[in-house]
Amino acid sequence: MATRNRMPPWHENFKAPSGRELLIRPIRPEDGAPLQGAFALFGPEEVRDKFLQSVESLSDETAQRLTHPNPKTEIALVAAEPLPPGEAVVGAVARASIIPGTRDAEYAILVSGFLAGQGLGRQLMRKLVKWARGKYLDRLYGDIAQDNEPMLQLAASLGFKQVPHPAAAPGLVRMVLELAN
């Protein structure tokens, strides 16, 4: 009888064109310290694009919040070295969270510069879309810095449409994927 080598849900081996091998998996509480340590690997532009300000380090509070998602309303994935959580360097983080009282979820993806342009953001985004569809949500959206052309192009290539930002936030573009289609 043949046995299948199956990975746990939301786990995937990812081989970048550079040859670097990563494991995409749900974030774990043990990832807090490596995530804080790896924060320096994220260049100032990547951090600014995500946090919309210069952030030198990841606070303990933010690391705690990221590494303890509520499984009913959010998902957080990492792309890390194929080592045990707590030991692996984290090169990317993707998160989606349902907005309370709605059928919408907001996403955010942060990929370090040394992994940018290798398809990792696309793969993480596909997983977030799959999660949102599995939750039977109406839409998935993200706010992207208007000068973050690679992320805007990625979102558009996956069917996201640019809509006016409800807060008219300067420098931000809201990209929305209608999931009910």
Automatic annotation (TrEMBL):
InterPro entries per the UniProt record, alphabetical: Acyl_CoA_acyltransferase, GNAT_dom
Gene3D superfamilies: 3.40.630.30
Domain of life: Bacteria
Short name of one Pfam family: Acetyltransf_1
GO molecular function (one): acyltransferase activity, transferring groups other than amino-acyl groups
Domain N-acetyltransferase, chain residue ranges per copy: 22-180
Name of the protein described by the UniProt record: Acyl-CoA synthetase
